[in-house]
Specification:
With about 260 residues, the chain is α+β, with helices and mostly antiparallel strands. It contains four helices and 17 strands.
Length: about 260
């Protein structure tokens, strides 16, 4: 299966993410060679880089490692292809504009019947590629669209739509996903392939950290450096990236993060 990672922080910080090392923590490095991607917010806008190639040999990965990402909110993904060919259009995170905001989405799982079910027909948003993940993102945006008619909707209204959508997806198959509208990060945990071959919870883990001014946090494939004020960071990953106290999310749990803290 694919691997997910996301960060919500109080302040923008320098972030170094090694996709090759990140994929190793899934236990099956060789199977995560079908692409990778990262989307990070820069104020109201975001940057997105993705590639249908192994991260280990990627010039883009080297470029990102040399320049370093600076952000308070990011989502990343390494891919093992299950639906859709090995093309850029099928790499994640997927990005769309809605209501004057940039939205990003990444999914880990297998929603085999999603595209054939009339309940999940896409309308205003259409997939570019062939994955169940992008199809799910387009359906979610269609559901959120009525809320975004006049600026940023209330968080509670957005959470209600995301929570109900996550409940429906769980009926179709493993449905771990990360979604952000630039204001908040939504993390939904379900089931995933575990190291013993079973498919079960947990599908996501989280870690909360405080970094003092000038402090650094380092984990498997990840390094966050805060040069300014005291930093607060909330991390989500498919598997724990370090020996620290990562907490498993419950099956079906949706967590909302803002500025490095769970909220709502």
């Amino acid at each position: 299966m694919c691997e997910l990672f996301a960060m919500s922080a109080r302040l923008p910080s320098d972030v170094e993410l090694s996709f090759e090392e990140f994929s190793r923590h899934g236990g099956l490095t060789a199977s995560h060679k079908d692409g990778w991607g990262i989307a990070w917010y820069d104020g109201r806008d975001l940057h997105s880089v993705k590639e249908p190639a192994p991260a280990a040999s990627s010039r883009w990965v080297r470029f990102l490692q040399e320049t370093r990402v600076e952000s308070a909110l990011l989502i990343s993904h390494v891919r093992k292809a299950t639906q859709g060919g090995v093309f850029s259009r099928n790499c994640q995170p997927f990005v769309r504009e809605l209501g004057g905001a940039m939205h990003a989405f990444a999914h880990n799982g297998d929603l085999a019947d999603l595209t054939r079910d009339a309940l999940y027909r896409t309308r205003s948003f259409r997939p570019v590629g062939e994955t169940d993940s992008e199809h799910a993102f387009c359906v979610l945006l269609d559901r959120l669209r009525p809320l975004w008619s006049d600026g940023l909707p209330p968080l509670g209204a957005r959470l209600a739509v995301v929570t109900e959508f996550a409940r429906e997806l769980r009926l179709l198959g493993p449905a771990n996903f990360l979604y952000s509208d630039g204001d908040a990060l939504f993390a939904h945990a379900h089931r995933r392939h575990q190291s013993d071959g079973s498919v079960r919870a947990p599908g996501l883990w989280r870690l909360s950290r405080h970094c003092p001014q000038g402090g650094t946090f380092a984990a498997g494939g990840l390094r966050i450096t805060s040069d300014a004020e005291e930093q607060r960071v909330l991390l989500f990953a498919s598997v724990p990236l370090s020996a620290e106290g990562w907490e498993p999310l419950s099956e079906g749990e949706v967590v909302v993060a803002r500025e490095g803290l769970p909220t709502g």
